[in-house]
Design a protein that fits this description.
single chain, alpha+beta, four-stranded antiparallel sheet, 24% strand
Length: 138
C-alpha cells in the first residue's frame, strides 16, 4: 500500500506522453504571452537534454513590418529577448513535468525559415531517453 506522501505525488509522465505534454505546455505559454504559437512543435529528449523545436509561428504585424523594412535581425533580437523574459516560466514547466532541475536553458530564433529552438539541460538523465557518452582518454 502506498504511503500518504506517495499518494499526494502526481504520477510523472514518461515517454511520448511526456514529450507531447512538454510541447503542449511550451506552445501554451507562447500563445498566452506572445499572442500566437507555432504551427508545429516537436520535443526531443536524449539523456539529460530536452529540445523543443517550433516551426511556423508566423510573424506579428509588428514583426512583419520590421521584416518588410529589411531588418530581419531586429526580429530575431526581439524574439530572443522575449525568450529571455520567459526563461523562468519555461524552466519551471520543464521541472514540473520531468521532476528534474533545469541547469541550463538555451534559446535560438531563426526567421527564414521560421524556426525557434528551446533547449533545456537537466540535472540527470530522463528515464527511457539514453545516450552514449564518449570520453577522450588522458
Amino acid at each position: 500500500m502506498d504511503s500518504p506522501s506517495e499518494q499526494d505525488q502526481p504520477a510523472q509522465l514518461v515517454g511520448g506522453k511526456l514529450l507531447a505534454q512538454i510541447s503542449t505546455s511550451i506552445v501554451g505559454i507562447l500563445r498566452e504571452h506572445y499572442g500566437r504559437g507555432p504551427m508545429k512543435a516537436k520535443t526531443y529528449a536524449l539523456d539529460d537534454v530536452i529540445m523543443v523545436v517550433m516551426r511556423g509561428s508566423g510573424f506579428t504585424a509588428l514583426e512583419q513590418t520590421i521584416m518588410d523594412s529589411g531588418q530581419p535581425g531586429r526580429v530575431v533580437a526581439m524574439r530572443e529577448e522575449f525568450q529571455h523574459v520567459m526563461a523562468e516560466r519555461y524552466k519551471d514547466t520543464i521541472e514540473d513535468l520531468t521532476g528534474r532541475r533545469v541547469v541550463a536553458f538555451l534559446s535560438q530564433a531563426h526567421v527564414d525559415p521560421d524556426i525557434t529552438v528551446e533547449m533545456f539541460f537537466v540535472d540527470g538523465p530522463l528515464p527511457g531517453f539514453g545516450a552514449v557518452e564518449v570520453i577522450e582518454p588522458e
